[in-house]
Amino acid sequence: MKKLISLSALLLMICLSVGAQTKTVAVLGDSYSTFEGAIPEGNAIWYFKQNNPNLTDVNSVEQTWWTLLARQKGWKLGMNNSYSGSTICNTGYNKDDYSDRSFTKRMDNLGENPDVILIFGATNDSWAHSPIGEFKYENITKEDLWSFRPAMAYMLGWMKEHYGKSTIYFLLNDGLSADVTESSKTICEHYGVKCIELQGIAKKAGHPSVKGMQQIAEQVGQVIE
């Protein structure tokens, strides 16, 4: 009887241990991280269940980079707050006001205490030619958030403070402007956030294809042990 009780207790401990090791991952992103039904209602979408073959061959959430990565790592998917076309700063395409969709606007809605946060941004800041601004890490004002560098710094600083138990990674797209690329790496280094530079991602209409999604998952997975 004692042996049976000990075995039961051991099995219970193993189950609890496995459950405790399951990490929750949250995503803050732009079009590359969207999929119909996988992001908050009202956020603009690039990837749909009924895909436009001229734009993408991705037609299932199972093909997305974050789903592939989560499966690879054994993570539980939490909040994915991604918005197609969004910039990190408040200045969008044609200098339009993107303060309703910017990363700094959405960064406080990533669920409660995710173990891992993956930020995949800066692509639209580069493509939209948003103001680059100056490096600024203190006393950042609302006016500063209309430029990329101070907005990026504000975002990472705020997230490091408010998601103190989370491990944060920044995914950096390939093919962006030198200013945005180098600034992203510099600001990540300042805040101690690992910047994962993607290389040679296969794309269609400027967005990851099925192959590109697999490449992103593989490259990110190699960095995150």
Topology overview:
Layout lengths: L1 H20 L2 E6 L35 H9 L2 E7 L20 H4 L9 E5 L2 H5 L20 H15 L4 E6 L5 H14 L2 E4 L5 E2 L2 E2 L1 H14 L2
Parallel strand pairs: 1-2, 1-3, 3-4, 4-5
Antiparallel strand pairs: 6-7
Helix pairs in contact: 2-7, 5-6
Fold and architecture overview:
This protein is α/β, with parallel strands linked by helices. The protein contains 7 helices and 7 strands, in the order αβαβαβααβαβββα. The protein has helices at 2-21, 65-73, 103-106, 123-127, 148-162, 178-191, 210-223; strands spanning 24-29, 76-82, 116-120, 167-172, 194-197, 203-204, 207-208. Strand 4, helix 6 and strand 5 form a beta-alpha-beta unit. Mean pLDDT is 93; it is low at 1-5 and 14-19.
Strand order of the biggest β-sheet: 2-1-3-4-5
Number of strands: 7
SS-derived structural category: alpha/beta
The low-pLDDT segments are 1-5, 14-19
**What's the helix-strand series?**
HEHEHEHHEHEEEH
Residue share in helix: 25-40%
Number of helices: 7
Distance linking N and C termini:
42 Å
Characterize the overall form.
globular
